[in-house]
Amino acid sequence: MQLPALDMPVFQPGWVWLAGAGPGDPGLLTLHAVNALNQADVVIYDALVGEAILRCARPNAILEYAGKRGGKPSPKQRDISLRLVELAQAGKRVLRLKGGDPFVFGRGAEEALALHESGIPFRIIPGISAGIGGLAYAGIPLTHRDTNSCVTFLTGHNASGEVPDSLDWAAMVRASPVLVIYMAMKHLDLLVAKLRHAGLSGDRPAALVQDATLPQMRVLTSTLGRICADAQAAGIAPPALLVVGEVVDLHAAFGRSDLQATLNSSCQAAS
């Protein structure tokens, strides 16, 4: 893939670049991420990095899968970090490619610390997070002057795979009119129960966005009281985002079928 005539950084041997690949649509890759793919000797990629994005790698690059998916055998985080160090010490130009942004619920900080402790030089390349780009593609704005001036992002499970137990759910619900929960499907029932217990009404608008920005993206709008039953009936599956707040109601205007068809055509052309 040819880049415009920009002054882009040179990927030096022995370095690791931690890059975000965005939420899925190859068109949402940054120029820095494409530049990294064009130069890397080894690309270690996550489960949410699609084939269309990997095809941007230079022809002789080695592609290594290091994805983590709930309920399936996955490499341990320590082993991934050690692999990055090992390859860099061997003089390789190592690209660690993550879905979304590496520093937004992506374990990028853990890997960067491991590289720092081992004396490996590294670069961080931000990416478009699914909670921003994915909801935009779904026709759900994160903010609107008539509904909210605050947004809270949280993860649906912590390092142990359970719903985070250190959150002050009541304070969060009081402070933020819009909540975006990553990796929401595994514990959807419990997440909804916590939000209801914290004071949110069952009538609160809620939506699930599955496979955000991809051609097969699905958007289910509902209410907090019905979202679990509706998700089960619709067969919504991971990966999916849960968004709760009045902005969900704007999907009726921004999530038009003609707009969605345009987005899907863009994704298919890129792949």
Automatic annotation (TrEMBL):
Protein known as: uroporphyrinogen-III C-methyltransferase
Q: According to the UniProt entry, what is the EC number of this protein?
A: 2.1.1.107
What CDD domains does the entry give?
Answer: SUMT
Superkingdom of source: Bacteria
The pathway where this protein functions is:
Porphyrin-containing compound metabolism; siroheme biosynthesis; precorrin-2 from uroporphyrinogen III: step 1/1; Cofactor biosynthesis; adenosylcobalamin biosynthesis; precorrin-2 from uroporphyrinogen III: step 1/1
The Tetrapyrrole methylase domain, residue ranges = 16-227
A GO BP entry: cobalamin biosynthetic process
Family the entry assigns: Belongs to the precorrin methyltransferase family.
Give one GO term, molecular function aspect: uroporphyrin-III C-methyltransferase activity
The record's annotation in Pfam families points to:
TP_methylase
PANTHER family noted in UniProt: S-ADENOSYL-L-METHIONINE-DEPENDENT UROPORPHYRINOGEN III METHYLTRANSFERASE, CHLOROPLASTIC, SIROHEME SYNTHASE-RELATED
Q: State the top-level EC class.
A: transferase
Q: Which InterPro entries match?
A: 4pyrrol_Mease, 4pyrrol_Methylase_sf, 4pyrrole_Mease_sub1, 4pyrrole_Mease_sub2, CobA/CysG_C, Siro_Cobalamin_biosynth, Uropor_MeTrfase_CS
Question: Which key words are in the record?
Answer: Cobalamin biosynthesis, Methyltransferase, Porphyrin biosynthesis, S-adenosyl-L-methionine, Transferase
NCBIfam families found in the cross-reference section = cobA_cysG_Cterm, PRK06136.1
Task: Tell me the organism's taxonomic lineage.
Answer: Bacteria, Pseudomonadati, Pseudomonadota, Alphaproteobacteria, Rhodospirillales
